[in-house]
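Interim report, section 4.2 (structural modelling).
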Amino acid sequence: MNKIKENNIIAMEEVTALYNRPLLDLVYEAATIHRTNHDAGEMQICTLLSIKTGGCTEDCGYCSQSVHNEAELEKEILLKTKDVLNQAKKAKDAGSTRFCMGAAWPKVLDGRAFDRVCDMVKGVSDMGMESCVTLGMLNEAQAKKLKDAGLSAYNHNLDTSREFYDKVVTTRNYDDRLNTLKNVAKAGISSCCGGILGLGESEKDRISLLHTLANLNPQPESVPINMLVPVEGTPMESNKIIDIFEWIRCIAVARILMPQSIVKLSAGRASLPKEAQAMAFMAGANAIFAGEKLLTTDNVSEDEDHTLLKNLGMIARAPFKNEGGCACNGGSGGCGSKAA
Ligand code: SAM
Ligand code: DTB
Ligand code: SF4
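Predicted structure of the assembly:
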């Protein structure tokens, strides 16, 4: 996909035209681009851990952890570093190469809790795993501190389009999110930035989200595609489940627009048949969250994932393959810096 000419910006019309192509054409093109830029037999295996659960003052309509929602949840204060590192070690032994730690914080506050998270990041990195955290908004100095601790990536999702954003959350705005992404980039940390499908957004909102993600500079290193997990007690508990082909379409468009990014199947995988997941891999998805739990909701069992990858002949991607800022495999469409 060539970026539309002016200032290297991809135009909304171009994304719209792409999105509206016949699904199998899209999957075919996405698969081709995927194979040019990545080793299509590899899957990045990530493990998530909620290091501080519940009590968040933001009002995200989908989230079990917001004080504004009434989801049943066992709240937890910030976990101890040694407990987190034990979990990371278990994840590594089970085959994960990236360990992602999530805190239900609206933003990072300087102090002992943040220092402890930096220790966790250092511990995970020292273990030879890629480390990722998602801690809400943060400033440049805080991003720098995480970078110095060895952080590989910061997860901060845009979730949906700018136009639909205030139907999802009202306690912050789209520019707050973009500002944190800028601080992450300035500190030299890769960004993990994607969205959620099934919030009640229109097709135009999905196109607009993909358009915004693809025009981030730099493009995200990872693009998590979450399917809403409807949580009882949230305003979105009865949302209509998004059509699987619509989900595949978004994955294919993300792959085409962001050829070198890792496209990650995130929340919602537990409700999808294995055939749908295989089609998503064909459309260019190349990372999953493994392990029985995401942050607060259930995930696919390790056995099922193991069987699925084995049956598809896929293997785990080595850690730190994207050192130097590029996730490519050095193939003909890649950056030429074949690592690992
Ligand atoms: N508080 C931080 C923040 O919002 O950036 C980090 C934690 S937050 C739980 C991480 C991401 O999980 C959200 O941005 C959202 O995309 C995703 N998420 C949360 N609840 C979800 C749900 N019920 N279904 C799908 N995705 C969800
Ligand atoms: C992302 O995009 N999805 C993950 C991770 N980044 C932090 C979180 C999914 C959370 C799903 C709902 C839950 O388990 O609470
Ligand atoms: Fe949940 Fe993060 Fe929103 Fe807080 S900021 S309510 S943890 S998604």
